[in-house]
Write a structure and sequence with these properties.
With 117 residues, the protein is an all-alpha fold.
């Protein structure tokens, strides 16, 4: 066995239907995206110094480019989050239906046992 710790989460299922199959659970990927979005402080300070050295038009273009990249990253994360929340909602809904069915079956079994006694 290796001493390395895996940064991904594996969700095991015992049925044919993999309810969590399309969830994005790559912990390392999420951490990297978060770091990208918030930005490293030293990198941010470097950008500020860089902007001060550029003329207004060039600094505006650089800032525009950076903001477009951040928007793209946020849109990707938003899409993943929407997909994951939808999957979780459907899973919860299916689980409630399954439990309701199980309750009904158990109630029927109990009634049958009471009738036999």
């Amino acid at each position: 066995m290796s001493d390395k710790q895996d940064d991904t989460t594996t969700i095991e299922t015992n049925g044919d239907d993999d309810l969590y199959g399309d969830l994005d659970v790559d912990v390392k990927n999420v951490a990297e995206k978060k770091k990208k979005m918030t930005g490293d402080t030293s990198t941010t300070n470097q950008h500020r110094r860089h902007y001060l050295q550029l003329d207004d038009g060039e600094s505006t273009r650089e800032e525009n480019k950076m903001l477009k990249e951040r928007i793209r990253t946020l849109e990707e994360e938003n899409l993943i989050l929407k997909r994951n929340i939808g999957t979780l909602f459907r899973t919860a809904k299916n689980e409630i239906q399954r439990k309701d069915g199980q309750i009904i079956r158990l109630q029927q079994q109990q009634q049958q046992q009471q009738q036999q006694d």
